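hey m, so remember when u said the tokens were messed up on ur end? i reran from scratch. heres the input so u can diff it against urs
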Amino acid sequence: MVIFFFHLGFLLKVYKNIETKDNLQKFFDFCVRQIELSIREIGYGDATINKKMKEYINLFYSIVDRIDKWEDKDSNQRCQILKLYVDDISNYENFVEYFEKYRNKLTKITFNNITEDIITN
């Protein structure tokens, strides 16, 4: 889930000044609904779902807060961010490089290309 939240955080960060807030909110809401549906499919009850969703949303916002100004951080600082959330990775630098490539790729494609089947205007 943590890796998904990093992806979602970078996506929202890249497009926040390009795309409308309404479309970003629709995409975020879609992602949250899908997580909730997945938890329901596992068989958790409503009380557990609410607790898990609160934990997940807090985790997501924590990640978003940490990746703010990602581009201004050096490789070591980026590794430290990942270490806060992901245990037992032998090479954090590979993940830093991956997320930097992902972030750069997002700047070259439109939000509509990513969300065309999810958001309808």
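this time it looks ok to me. The radius of gyration is 15 Å. if urs says something different then somethings off w ur setup not the seq
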